[in-house]
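Lab manual, section 2.4: Encoding a predicted structure.

Procedure: take the sequence of the chain (211 residues), apply the prediction step described in section 2.3, and record the output as structure tokens. A sample record is shown.
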Amino acid sequence: MGKGSVRRLIACSLIVLIVSLGITGCSSGGEEQEAVPQRFVYDYEARKMKAATRRPMAVVQREIPFGTMFPVRLLNRLSSASVRVGDVFGVEVLQDVIVDGAVVIAIGSIGQGRVTEVEPAKGWGKGGKLRISLDFVSAVDGQRIAIEANEQTAGRDKDVIGAGTLAGVVLVGPLWLFAPALTKGENIVLPADTQFYVMVKFPAMVDAHIY
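Recorded output:
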């Protein structure tokens, strides 16, 4: 075999190798690793069913203080591979929020959040990005109560679960010291039924229920 043939053979081999590496790198960018939802409230469904049958004995005014914390669960699966900025998702309250003996936000109340930042995983090991924010949950009188997640609620998550959470990173920001490691190059996935704490953003006066 002549020198020219050897050079052509080497060149062809390099092209095949480069193409193969490129295809492998691109394909890894679309992978998702399904996480197990983080849970710390386990008797929720039974208490929700019981609460649905009760009727208030009295309606009284109560102010929900700023900073009141309570747990919610995610109603939709969120993945950096498929969601878009502005997409809306639901949350559900996991326990009664009580102020001075009256329920101001009931177990099972529905709320809303939205996607604020997203970037799907890409080739060559670049993982996805996902950031969400919370908007509101409904009080017993129908008012929309503004809520948020922040460093305090992420700390409460850490206290009850005993470890850092991916939800804390997605909700609050780059708290990488508290977050589980993501496999390089994968999309971020928050499964439906993921539980986490939220906080009342502003004081609100509501017509609360005494049962």
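Check your result against the sample. The chain has one domain: 31-210.
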